[in-house]
Amino acid sequence: MALELSEPRPLGKPIRRKEDARLIRGQGRYLDDIVLPGMLHLALVRSPYAHARIRRIDVQRAAALPGVHLVLTGQDLAAAGLAWMPTLAGDRQMVLAVDKVLFQYQEVAAVVAESRALAEDAAALVEVDYEPLPAVVDPYRALEPGSPILREDRDPPSNRIFHWEAGDRAATEAALARSAVVVRETVRMPRVHPAPLEPCGCIADYQRATGRLTWYVTSQAPHAHRTVLAMVAGIPEHKIRVVSPDVGGGFGNKVPVFPGYVAAIVAAMRLNRPVKWVETRTENLTSTNFARDYHMTVEIGADADGKVTALKVSTIADHGAFDAAADPTRFPAGLFSIVTGSYDFPVAFAEVDGVYTNKAPGGVAYRCSFRVTEASFLIERAMQSLALRLGMDPVALRLKNFIPPEKFPYHSPLGWTYDSGNYRATLERAMERIGYAALRQEQAERRARGELMGIGVSTFTEIVGAGPSHTFDILGIKMFDSCELRVHPTGKVLARLGTRHQGQGHETTFAQVIAEELGLTADDVLVEEGDTDTAPYGLGTYASRSTPTAGAAAAVAARRVRDKARRIAAHLLEVAEDDVEWDGTRFHPAGTPARGVTMAEVALAAYTNPPPGMEPGLEGTVYYDPPNLTFPNGAYLCVVDIDKGTSQVHVRRFVAVDDCGTVINPMVVEGQIHGGLTEGFAIAFLQEIAFDEQGNCLAPNFMEYLVPTAVETPQWETDRTVTPSPHHPIGAKGVGESPNVGSPAAFVNAVIDALAPLGVTHLDIPLYPWKIWEVLHERGVAE
Amino acid sequence: MEIAVTVNGQLRRADVEPRTLLVYLLRETFGLTGTHVGCDTTHCGACTVLLDEVPVKSCTVLAVQADGSSVMTVEGLETDGRLHPLQSAFSDHHGLQCGYCTPGMLMAAWALLRETPHPQPAEIRRALSGNLCRCTGYQNIVEAVADAAQRMAQEVG
Ligand code: FES
Ligand code: FES
């Protein structure tokens, strides 16, 4: 149960969320709730083909429909130099197609009309004459010689976007050659979609007289969007105001800039009227930013006792028609090099080749710090395969190979410095919670009766909080984040940050951090995000970076304010500054706790009676450049039973023990974990954005793309260990993504563990019932 | 077409196109934006409202079908400045994150509790199975609904 906002010393307590008051009353203000005077609506015409030449576009009938104000095509945009836009990954993407379409549902024309319905009507009247071309759907085929080149605009023409590698190839291959055991597995993480419940959208409001553009947009990164916009549209950056209102979930989907956004802005500038574009769910699933699509081959070596010796990974990354990922500049494969996980590998090597195919663009970090989910899934699956080959208990194999606590800070063979962790303690907590030994006993008995029960283990390490400026930037902008704090004369606080929450609860959790530092309550601190005119510059909320970066900025800004407050307190208490002590809620002279002043009293003095010579006011602004990333981790255990009659997998129990360092609000953390586990469950069992050979999207809506309901979703059991980050001001690490990163392997490992007696060592996700059905029938055990 | 609908206890009239969906009547004509749209195939339930006390997906009801009926939306849950027990329980149990599914969840839960004042967790899950949430994993929502049921029983008792 939530504690009230008036709770003193709020850090670490389950404080009621401030956001709730408006959201439970239906008074949230999401993008589509905003209506501006004179607003028009935009609808897009999309390609039915995955690959085709555009012979002709006829917009006459659409343009003639009463109530239609504008029809835009790629040619129109090309005339203004806006046919293409840069992606955050350093590629470029067509806004509206010119000459050629490269994926089904690609944006071909835009229609602006008095109402949304009318815009859709008119869009249906736009006639496009296509000449279909052979589609390249399989990413392996895309790399074969003779495969059609998709991106003729690239020089040299090639379907290979990038080759990236990390580690020591020769040493790794040598170590594998010397290893007593080497297990090789091909593991696919299929294309999925973040699918936040609120689709993406924007309203562009341009005032020709002043040249000012106010852009309301479902954005996880408003400042980055402002800068991209200044670059794309050539509008001076100070004349752009980006407002990200309440956001109905993001999960990475709302980081990039989409063609519909640019079309709406161009239309607003041409028409001098506000233009709204909101995508449908179908448009969301088919065109705005899928995730994963990683095709990975792993070789893991070990000595005969199960001590790991080497890890080698080769990956084909299907990015679709444009590389519209939002990875930091130097990391085209994101932070995939976390792939050695929680284990002490002496050597490792990883390589990734990014590939163009005739599919929707993307490669976004879906509830994941840039390809960390893929990496964790791979290493945790590989550990399962290795345990099977060695005939070892998967828990025993992990305990044998964990990076021991005394090795932190730990330098991984792929170049990271892990900040802290106590993997054994975390796993042991999980084993205790679930009753591991008893479950193995039960499993042996059930197996003897021919029943299929499995126990899955995943002991992952994440890497979040991008990131330190020496390594991390997006389009050249360093990945710091920021907080600007103002303490008003009555001791109430306004805090503005460069991040933008989408359900994570920043209005409450950051208020807790600041209140704790200033001896106030969360109620005393108003947190604002999402308006670039008022918030300090920041890179936004994704990749679990908010707490490690903006959360750190908030703590440091509050400490700066407290330092000044201490000097004012000394003046009020008439003692030397060194003689002032802070007890968490009051300043008092050392040794005289009875005679103290509160932050509110100090704040008043800052404006009414500052010490002689001191600048009035009580404010602090911090741009926090994290010295390192943070490395949250966890131990997840999953128990499944497989019905030999129906092939249904029943998740009987799931215990998640997370270590995200210092916990700001345990209720919010638990909520994040429940949500992430549910998305991980979906990825393991239900979801794939698949394509047929012509490149037709086979999961374009919630009928085919399955989001788990309350009925399928298992009951979650959560717990934690706390190993603070040594370099974060309050020791917090970030948690939003851990459950999504760590859980898919736990589910799959449980299913494989159940099927292992039948000789099954691997199945590709999603583990649809028909895949299990096939196995049970092939092995003759179906009932 | 002219229609008259009682919305949250107030009679309201509108002139709508025959194809107008109830959800747009509520959101755009009446300005009740608490009811959301999350899909185009009747799967997500973000648009759930009560039509003559029955939960419906208002994206799949024509506005003209509501003519002469009464509709209750999330905005109608709070009475005389008092939150409905479901609303407080959702906040107490952290049953919402981004809040986009919340109005629909509240309305579906309201309908459940009217029919089944003391639901078991499995019944709650089944009753909410037409409402998707991408954030919470449902567990806290189920707890919130169970707790609200208890509070309502106490209020009546
Ligand atoms: S909007 Fe999704 S069911 Fe109505
Ligand atoms: S709280 Fe975000 S969809 Fe339910």
Unreliable residue stretches of chain A: none
CATH architecture heading of the largest domain in chain A: 2-Layer Sandwich
> Roughly how much helix do the residues of chain B carry, as a percent range?
25-40%
Count of helix runs of chain A: 19
Instruction: Work out the radius of gyration of chain B.
Output: 15 Å
Plain-language structure description:
The complex is a heterodimer of chains A (783) and B (157). Chain A contains 19 helices and 33 strands. In chain A, the strands form nine sheets. Chain A has a seven-stranded mixed β-sheet with strand order 3-7-1-14-11-12-13. In chain A, helix 17 links the parallel strand 32 and strand 33. In chain A, helix 17 (666-685) crosses helix 18. Chain A is globular and about 85 Å long. With 157 residues, chain B is an alpha+beta fold. Chain B has two domains: 2-76, Beta-grasp domain (Ubiquitin-like (UB roll), Roll), CATH 3.10.20.30; 85-156, [2Fe-2S]-binding domain (DNA polymerase, domain 1). Chain B has helices at 22-29, 85-92, 102-115, 121-127, 139-156, and strands at 2-7, 10-15, 48-51, 54-57, 70-72. In chain B, strands 2-1-5-3-4 form a five-stranded mixed β-sheet, with helices on both faces. The model of chain B has no long low-confidence stretch (mean pLDDT 97). Chains A and B meet through helix 1 and helix 17 of A and helix 2, helix 3, helix 4 and helix 5 of B.
Offer a quick outline of the entry.
The complex is a heterodimer of chains A (783) and B (157). Chain A is 28% helix and 25% strand. Chain A is α+β, with helices and mostly antiparallel strands and 783 residues long.
